[in-house]
Amino acid sequence: MTGTVYLVGSGPGDPELLTVKARRLLDEADVVLHDKLPGPEILGEIPEEKREDVGKRAGGERTPQSEINARMVELAEAGDDVVRLKGGDPFVFGRGGEELAYLAERGVPFEVVPGITSAVAAPAAADIPVTHRDHASSVSFVTGHEDPSKDESAVDWQALADTGGTIVVLMGVGKLPEYTRALLDAGMDPSTPVALVEKGTRPGQRVATGTLETIVDARDEAGIEPPAVTVVGDVAGVREDLR
Ligand code: SAH
């Protein structure tokens, strides 16, 4: 009988922030396909013999999505119940949608198990509320991976600046100089608070704070590295007020 593929969000990294359902499925699964993002604390709890790393290949480059898709189907068709474990929530910048479409096309039974996204949890772990009655009535989740200078940038930084709510940037450590510049060029106040939260909820959690003008220096000084989220907006200053 064909197995089921469970597309499971692992949350931001603290094993206690796995859902009860994710925990049960990890126990019951025959195979767990994962990359590095769930983090060593969670991955370390999964028996080695049922873990399969589909993140980076030996050479260090990323496993092609087509290969991961094919592996999920291969295992399910051999009768295995598969957990495809994704950091945070599987549908927030996780390619979950693409994997689901592939499974559906091939008639493989699947179920999606939401996870706590780092877009909300990493700020929360640093005492930053992404919305706040006095500071922000909307929040946008955007990728920082795109080059803001290229003409066809998928992220409309001008529109985000105009909206005035909280902006949470994922995958945004490397291109921080480019998109903070884009937001300044779009007319945002240079003194807008910005916070970087690295390894949110995990033992190595670190936070760097500043403004649109100073955050690049703060990043370099602290040596902030991925995975980290960038929070842009007045809510990023609430943390300082609490202190
Ligand atoms: N599906 C994931 C996001 C995948 S994109 C989710 O919902 O959280 C990968 C990005 O997620 C990283 O570049 C980083 O911006 C963010 N991220 C994941 N875990 C994180 C953590 N514990 N702390 C800070 N950022 C994290």
Write the topology of this structure:
Elements lengths: L4 E5 L10 H9 L2 E4 L5 H4 L7 E3 L11 H13 L4 E5 L9 H10 L4 E4 L4 H8 L13 E5 L13 H7 L2 E5 L5 H10 L7 E6 L7 E6 L3 H8 L5 E5 L2 H8 L1
Parallel strand pairs: 1-4, 1-5, 2-3, 2-4, 6-7
Antiparallel strand pairs: 7-10, 8-9, 8-10
Helix pairs in contact: 6-7
Bound molecules: S-adenosyl-L-homocysteine (SAH).
Short structural summary:
The protein has helices at 20-28, 40-43, 65-77, 96-105, 118-125, 157-163, 176-185, 215-222, 235-242, and strands spanning 5-9, 31-34, 51-53, 82-86, 110-113, 139-143, 166-170, 193-198, 206-211, 228-232. It is an alpha/beta fold and 243 residues long.
Note down, in words, how this protein is organized.
This protein has 243 residues and is of the alpha/beta class. The chain has two domains: 5-113, Cobalt-precorrin-4 Transmethylase, domain 1, CATH 3.40.1010; 118-242, Methyltransferase, Cobalt-precorrin-4 Transmethylase, Domain 2. The chain has helices at residues 20-28, 40-43, 65-77, 96-105, 118-125, 157-163, 176-185, 215-222, 235-242, and strands at 5-9, 31-34, 51-53, 82-86, 110-113, 139-143, 166-170, 193-198, 206-211, 228-232. The strands form two sheets. It has a five-stranded parallel sheet with strand order 3-2-4-1-5, sandwiched between helices. It has a five-stranded mixed sheet with strand order 6-7-10-8-9, sandwiched between helices. Helix 6 (157-163) packs across helix 7 (176-185). The longest helix has 13 residues, at 65-77. The N and C termini lie far apart (57 Å). The model has no long low-confidence stretch (mean pLDDT 95). Residues 12-13, 37, 86-89, 92-94, 117-119, 122, 170-171, 197, 199-202, 226-229 line the site of S-adenosyl-L-homocysteine (SAH).
